[in-house]
Amino acid sequence: GRAAAAAAAAATDRHGSTALMWAAGGGHVAACELLLQLGASPRARQQKDGRTAMHWAARNGRLEVCRWLVAQGCDADAPTRDGTTPLHWAVWQGHLDLCRWLVALAALAS
Asked: Which sections of the protein are ANK repeats (predicted)?
């Protein structure tokens, strides 16, 4: 039932990654929406290093997912334990449109 679905949405893999993180990294907005309806948190952090779904989406250049995550309350500038932000991941992977969006978002916040 609903409780089992919510538990599945909140479950983590051996690294502490949630299904929402995997869906975000894969660019699957509809799956992200479903997981959120089931109780997944857009602000959940990976146990290993503190990454969020935003980090996963940024690393893979998933601009649409990043926009959706921010609309759901995800911190676009959340640092991992070592200080790495979604912008760092986007820059590293060469996702220029996403980099521009993250920089513009940061400018609006300041």
From this structure: 15-47, 49-81, 82-110
